[in-house]
Amino acid sequence: MALGNKRTTLLVAMAALILQPSAASRVGGGLARAIADPGNGDGDGGIPQLPPQPRECRPWLARMMPCAGFLTNNSTVYAPDATCCDGFGSMFTLDTVTCLCHVVDGDIGKLLPAPMSRMRMVELFSVCGHAGRVDLLAAACSLMDGVPPIDLPSPSPLMPSPSARRLGD
């Protein structure tokens, strides 16, 4: 299987793990039909095409910042509020599914004001109404090639050309 097909298959599997049942059946059913009938004419061996994934995840992860008190075991926050669950729910789309890897592997902790509680992160899935298995999602993330970074790398500063340095001497 080509690398692009492997990545797409993992994305579809991740989507089936985390999307609501009705959406998951559409994605999973489409995958099953494509594999059963690989002659679908798209030239990639039967794997359905998913939307392009984001180049960086910070804009999507920022939507989860209302969850910071809950995720960091803040002693005054016993349950996530509606804005937290709304932000968390926005991560469950086909075009941002890979950014959830930063949630399950704990990288989102880099954006939080205190260390993230793994137990609270696992609770967040069920409390906010997402029945996906976190362990299966984490396993799929560990197999992924090319999970978008939280932030794009900073561009390196431009070095002056050798001729420009001679002019300033």
Automatic annotation (TrEMBL):
Bifunctional inhibitor/plant lipid transfer protein/seed storage helical domain residues: 52-134
Pfam families: LTP_2
UniProt cross-references to InterPro entries, sorted A to Z: Bifun_inhib/LTP/seed_sf (IPR036312), Bifunc_inhib/LTP/seed_store (IPR016140), LTSS (IPR043325)
Keywords: Disulfide bond, Glycoprotein, Signal
Signal peptide: 1-24
SUPFAM superfamilies: Bifunctional inhibitor/lipid-transfer protein/seed storage 2S albumin
UniProt family annotation: Belongs to the plant LTP family.
Protein name from the UniProt record: Bifunctional inhibitor/plant lipid transfer protein/seed storage helical domain-containing protein
Organism (species): Zea mays
